[in-house]
Specification:
This protein has 438 residues and is of the alpha/beta class. The chain is 33% helix and 21% strand. Helix 9 packs parallel to helix 10 and helix 13 runs parallel beside helix 14. It binds S-adenosylmethionine and iron/sulfur cluster (SF4). The site of S-adenosylmethionine has 18 residues, from strand 16.
Length: 438
């Protein structure tokens, strides 16, 4: 099939926040190369599927998404398969889905415009190379930021948990240079960001010449006009004393920590190749609570890892009860091709996983509801992010990352004083105040 040069594009991002960030950067890159985002509901000349490979039938889902791009008249847009499925499948993707014109891995996005030119000329380029973060250098300056904006500072992972595909799809741990992070942070703040969410597969492993993540946070906190700093996802092995101290001392660092544990059973943690035990994990949280008593804690859990017994699972429930999470994410174990756990004995039956997931989520939801109930009456500030469903209603985030609905004429990007009121179990309502009581 022959194509004319695309004028419009659509990027569909799946999975983690790092994919959302990459999707924004690819959009800016295509924009700088003369293309425009397709209007809502309109056909796009180029579609980029920015895929996720972390769980379930990721590749199959991506191929069926590709199939759905066929238009009623039989034509199709130019199609780029991007993200972690692209990295994992490589050239095989072109064989399995002839509709795919380009395959571009997460470290090769800077080459997207030239790959589009090649595809228009009839080529079917594949680039899944992993050069040392050159993609960031090729992206244009930030020109438009959200009130809460993502900023990737670290990529890849060297930890090789036995269930996880990330070290294979995103490559080795790499930290972006400090000066590039600070200048991108300034660009984002200059164009409307009030909050930065620092991203990395192991964001707190960021380092440069002995300079650590906590120092980076302190440096970013000096940026005028930046009000809030968050980070995700952190790893227990990289929770340094300095980072815990930053939570006590840096006002702009929000009282929220997402620290995945995966299981409450030391036997399972060992089989997962996690470097922590339930006890060392809890000890980190205890120090964090001493540094910042109001901190909202979040985590990730996997149920049904090979060999997980009811006793192991009970240890996970007990850990949840001990931590009193403000929120947490839980997943059924999904065997990832090429990872050690995929071939372990004692794979757990789907119905056992379903049952454990339901029980775990019920427990997490109860703690989340209790956390929100305990916040009722608190006077605080909300960063307004977007309009709500009702006229005059805006939605923002509290410092503890609760979603808060407020009747206000404030605009996205405003930080407004409110009193937290009860709402649903997952969100809060806010009553506007003239100022927060000291
Ligand atoms: N680096 C972070 C850490 O180690 O804590 C987590 C990043 S990982 C991309 C996000 C989450 O996906 C993990 O915390 C884990 O709970 C989940 N996950 C990863 N591989 C999985 C698998 N094979 N099956 C189910 N969940 C998985
Ligand atoms: Fe995956 Fe996180 Fe483990 Fe790395 S540390 S292998 S990203 S779960």
């Amino acid at each position: 099939m022959t194509f004319t040069s695309p004028k419009t594009f659509r990027i569909k991002s799946f999975g983690c926040q790092m994919n959302v960030y990459d999707g924004e950067r690819m959009a800016e890159l295509l924009g700088a190369n003369g293309m425009a985002a397709a209007a809502e509901g309109a056909d796009a000349d180029l579609v980029v599927l920015n895929t996720c490979h972390i769980r379930e039938k990721a590749a199959e889902k991506a191929y069926s998404d590709v199939g759905r791009l066929r238009r009623e008249d039989g034509s199709k847009p130019l199609i780029a398969l991007a993200g972690c499925v692209a990295q994992a499948e490589g050239a095989e993707a072109k064989r399995r889905a002839p509709m795919i014109d380009m395959v571009v891995g997460p470290q090769a996005y800077h080459r997207l415009p030239e790959m589009v030119t090649e595809a228009v000329r009839g080529g079917r380029p594949v680039d899944t190379d992993m050069p040392a973060i050159s993609k960031f250098d090729a992206f244009p300056k930030r020109v438009r930021a959200n009130p809460s904006s993502f900023l990737t500072i670290q990529e890849g992972c060297d930890k090789f948990c036995t269930y996880c595909v990330v070290p294979y799809t995103r490559g080795a741990e790499i930290s972006r240079p400090r000066k590039d992070i600070v200048s991108e942070a300034r660009e984002l703040v200059d164009t409307g960001a009030r909050e930065l969410v620092l991203l990395g597969q192991n964001v707190n492993a960021w380092t440069e010449d002995g300079y650590g993540f906590a120092e980076l946070i302190r440096e970013l906190a000096k940026i005028d006009g930046l009000h809030r700093i968050r980070y995700t996802t952190s790893h227990p092995a990289d929770m340094t004393e300095e980072l815990i101290a930053a939570h006590r001392e840096v006002d702009k660092l929000m009282p929220y920590l997402h620290l995945p544990v995966q299981s409450g059973s030391n036997r399972i943690l060992k089989a997962m190749n996690r470097s922590h035990t339930a006890e060392t994990y809890l000890a980190i949280l205890e120090k964090m609570r001493a540094a910042r008593p109001d901190i909202a804690l979040s985590g990730d859990f996997i149920v049904g890892f090979p060999g997980e017994t009811e006793e192991d699972f009970t240890a996970t429930l007990n850990l949840v009860d001990e931590v009193h999470y403000a929120s947490a994410y839980s997943f059924k174990y999904s065997p990832r091709p090429g990872t050690p756990a995929a071939t372990m004995e004692d794979q757990i039956a789907p119905e056992i996983m379903d049952d454990r997931l339901q029980r775990l989520q019920a427990r997490i939801n109860a703690h989340q509801a209790a956390f929100n109930a305990a916040s009722v009456g608190r006077q605080t500030e909300v960063l307004v992010e977007r309009r709500g469903r009702h006229p005059g209603q805006m939605i923002g985030r509290s410092p503890w990352l609760q979603s808060v609905h407020v009747e206000t004429d404030a605009a996205p990007g405003d930080i407004i004083p409110i009193k937290l009121l009860a709402d649903g179990p997952r969100s809060m309502a806010g009553a506007l105040l003239t100022k927060v009581a000291a």
